[in-house]
Amino acid sequence: MDGTSGRDGSALVRWDRVRGQLKREFGEAAFRTWVQPLTLSQIGAGSVRLGVPTRFMRDWVMTHYGDRIRSLWSEIDPSVRIVDFVVESGAPRPAAPPAPPPAPLPAPATRARAGRTARAATSDETRAMPAAPAPQTTRIEPAPTPAAAPAASTREAADDGLSAPLDPRFTFDNFVVGKPNEFAYAAAKRVAETEGVSFNPLFLYGGVGLGKTHLMHAIARRLRENQAGCRVIYLSAEQFMHRFIRALRQQDTLSFKEQFRSVDVLMVDDIQFISGKESTQEEFFHTFNALVDQGSQIVLSADKSPSDLENIGQRLRSRMGCGLVADLHPTTYELRLGILQSKAEQMGVEVPSRVLEFIAHKVTTNGREVEGALIRLVAHAQLVGRTLTVETAQEVLHDLVRAYDRRVSIEDIQKKVAEHFKIRLADMHSARRARAIARPRQVAMYLSKQLTSRSLPDIGRNFGGRDHTTVMHAVRKIEELMAGDPAFAEDVDLLRRMLES
Ligand SMILES: Nc1ncnc2c1ncn2[C@@H]1O[C@H](COP(=O)(O)OP(=O)(O)OP(=O)(O)O)[C@@H](O)[C@H]1O
Fold first, then answer.
1. 116, 138, 313, 325: least CB-packed within 10 angstroms?
2. In what order do the strands lie in the sheet with 202-206?
3. Which helix (H) or strand (E) holds 492?
């Protein structure tokens, strides 16, 4: 890389064009938060180096915008094939808090998937860089095509062009196990750690963002690590279909069949994608049968159980359901908290436990959304130099919290608690002090504090005009009782889960 001639006027013009296009595509707010702080550090033969102010920001930009930045550079200057992101402490930080909220949450499937094609630079690549200060470099290269696949520097890359890259964060060690996913986790581990076939197929299913892809990647990685020579192919059903269509177009279905039928483990993610796509289903059905017959392992994931998949032929559905079907249930508070702790650790940031608890209470959908909320909060705090507090979280995540509060109201909580403890709803507002009445009322106040973002005085008003200190006392009392009495804690937790579902 020629650092001296690097930042000439024409390079800056090209960088401006890339930035202009990014702004049009991602919008003003995302641009201001993520693209504006990048600086053109160097440009040389075939590569561009961009400076990023923090490591966290580098990871986020690389995952969410890296591929697009690289392809825009290549469009404007076809000689550019590599874009490096380098943490440079001197790179500008945005002067003012970005308003509106910093960045869009990653759009469920597409953004996240696009991010997964990026890979961290290997130490060899980093050594090849000039001696310029590049302590934390991450590089985006074009996804290898079969013809141009580089000599494998990672195991994933070694697996010819068939397999999709594996996200290095999606390992068994990073998967948080709780009641909702313990069965799926155990089944996934069994497949990953058994030589030969376990359950065929293993079919993992569950709603959006509950960890199916994470488990699939973990299985593939573990198999490759532990079983040398085992050919493991992991790809999405969409990629399977595109490969099939390409083979049809190139009149090369024979080698397509050979490729897919010679693997030891075939893993196909989001199999619901082939709903209504009859030729792909037909081809997949034959591949499936051939692999089962020859004793290869198959692992599939979907958003529904095999029997509930619509527009997939009956015979394929029944084949898919004849191994082990394991579902991932919606997350609980504890699981979300565990996921948040694990993600914060992976991001290398210290987040106060009260903040993590706040997110786990307020963002109740799935792993992807809680992670998105955490990233957004940490990015905001880092970029505008604020400390991570519950108040910051309340402010930065206000849209998510509001959406949640619309779902659970104090009235819902009162009704559910009254029903559960068999007291009259009117007693939530009454002045009666008998313990049989006062305790459920305290539970309802506690849950109102946990499950809504209403203030203490506001909660008090909804309980017969009580004072905020009464609510505070109720919250403390219930926390104390829960800590000392597991049966009571379970009861309160059950109520919370019913309200959250
Ligand atoms: N139990 C868990 N432990 C750790 N991380 C989790 C867990 N569940 C979900 N996640 C995280 O949530 C995010 C979304 O998970 P993943 O992509 O695996 O979801 P999915 O079930 O495949 O969703 P989709 O159906 O949308 O593809 C990932 O970052 C993943 O690491």
1. 313
2. 232-236, 265-269, 297-302, 202-206, 324-328
3. helix 486-500
Which tokens is 51 given?
């400076």
Q: ipTM, 2 decimals?
A: 0.98
CB distance 375 to ligand 1 below 6 Å: no
Residue 212 annotated as part of some ligand binding site: yes
Instruction: For tokens 């995302």, name the residue.
Output: 30
- Of the candidates 94, 14, 91, 25, which has an alpha carbon nearest to the alpha carbon of residue 64? 25
Cβ 368 under 6 angstroms from ligand 1: yes
Sequence-ordered list of residues with C-beta below 8 angstroms from that of 379, at least 6 positions apart, any chain: 33, 56, 57, 60, 102, 103
Smallest CA separation from ligand 1 atom 1, residue? 176
pLDDT tens digit sequence for 340-362: 999 999 888 999 999 999 999 88
Q: Are strands 232-236 and 265-269 parallel, antiparallel or unpaired?
A: parallel
Q: Residue 436 has which token pair?
A: 């049989």
Is the entire prediction scored with pTM above 0.80?
no
Q: Is 97 in the pocket of ligand 1 (CB under 6 A)?
A: no
Domains observed in the chain: 3-143 (3.30.300.180), 179-328 (3.40.50.300), 333-404 (1.10.8.60), 408-500 (1.10.1750.10)
Q: What length is written for the chain?
A: 501
Q: Are 380 and 97 in contact (CB under 8 A)?
A: yes
Task: Transcribe 87-151 into DSSP letters.
Answer: E-TTSPPPSS--SS-SSPPPPHHHHHHHHTT--PPPHHHHHHS-SSS-SSEEEE-PPPPTTTPPS
